[in-house]
Amino acid sequence: MSSVKKVVLAYSGGLDTTVIVKWLQETYNCEVVTFTADLGQGEEIEPARAKAKAMGVKEIYIDDMREEFARDFVFPMFRANAIYEGEYLLGTSIARPLISKRLIEIAKETGADAISHGATGKGNDQVRFELGAYALMPGIQVIAPWREWDLTSRESLMAYCDERGIPVDRAKDKKRSPYSMDANLLHISYEGGNLEDPWWEANDPEMWLWTVSPEEAPDKPTYLELTYEKGDIVAIDGKAMSPATVMEYLNKVAGANGVGRLDIVENRFVGMKSRGCYETPAGTVMMRAHRAIESLTLDREAAHLKDELMPKYAKLVYNGFWWSPERKMLQAAIDESQKDVNGDVRIKLYKGSVTAVGRRSEDSLFDERIATFEDDAGAYDQKDAEGFIKLNALRMKIAASKGRDLL
Fold it and tell me: What distance in Å separates the CA atoms of residue 401 and residue 405, rounded to the nearest whole number?
């Protein structure tokens, strides 16, 4: 007899998690609580309520978490300029700690013994969900059906539904994308299908739902003025916006200009390589603009130290260690660096490209008197450079004089 009496399931309302509801009820003879998060995926999530009710679920949570997601997860990550393996803006990775947090909150509210998710045993998400859950509630039990059951394909899931009389919208299923997709305010991802051939060009019309192709983007550039306070965008073109509204607006405008497409092969935490395509219109703009305002306001060594720390920070997010003490420690240092990252950046969007064409700040460290190529009226004594150069050359001169081969 299972000791699990109640399970909180991260529930999308799709085929996989619908099967999981029934499987949990049968396998563990337990009550299932469903949790569906609106993270800005751009599709109606309320139908999940009716589907859960039809499965006999009595406690159903459907939460609008867009602002919390943008404010407390995406924006802090972008203060760090986090990029995984030089390209990936961590769109899926950063959503998982918030979902884990809410799963644990609901487990405590409902007195559940366990949580469950629909991540497979091959991917990163199982790690992210579970590391977050254990960090926030060490004694929680996690049930990962894809690591337990013998259902191995979409066809076997459909057969499971047929055997138990679980209704499946066949017409909708026929229209289903051939790709495994995940979406939130920051991005939409595509995996599987033709993408499993790394040589195949990702030009399928079933993909790229948020962006036009750069070739079809407008022939006239779009300009935006982004206002920053302490490293976060607070207004666009002079209009104050919340974090989620900023991202929604940038997704729309940047996507219309063909900005944000990415096709990569990445290294998963579990060890395998995976090819994925991503659309991150808002994130692509945010990254370029943030670096532009930092270039004006951050001290050189602080900026360089941030760049050294960033790969570690990005790896922690990718691998599921958002709730770890080391990520919190890095975040504190990063946030301290952002106190003077204030001002405006003018961005040009044109056929897939994002260019910072202007930046200004009351906290600027750019001194025109010193930087000018014209007469600086004595603001900088060029003779000082001679001693600076000789001191920096000293160790190399000594090595050469001792016969060291430096070629």
Answer: 10
Q: Clarify whether 96 is annotated catalytic.
A: yes
CATH topology of domain 182-298+340-360: Argininosuccinate synthetase, chain A, domain 2 (3.90.1260)
**pLDDT of 177-196, one tens digit each?**
788 899 999 999 999 999 99
pTM value > 0.90 = yes
Name the nearest CA neighbour of 206 among 175, 243, 166, 240: 175
395 belongs to the catalytic site: no
Instruction: For 52-108, write each residue's pLDDT tens digit.
Output: 999 999 999 999 999 999 999 999 999 999 999 999 999 999 999 999 999 999 999
Place of tokens 């600027």: 364
* Domain boundaries of the chain, sorted by first residue: 6-69+88-176, 182-298+340-360, 376-401
User: What is the C-alpha separation between 339 and 70, in angstroms, rounded?
Assistant: 19
Q: Enter the DSSP assignment of 3.
A: S
From the list 49, 71, 72, 180, the catalytic residue is 180
Catalytic residue (choose from 113, 125, 340, 344):
125
Q: Could you give the percent of the chain with pLDDT greater than 90?
A: 85
- Residue 281 to residue 259: CA distance in whole angstroms: 5
Active site residue 16: yes
Domain 6-69+88-176 = CATH 3.40.50.620 = yes
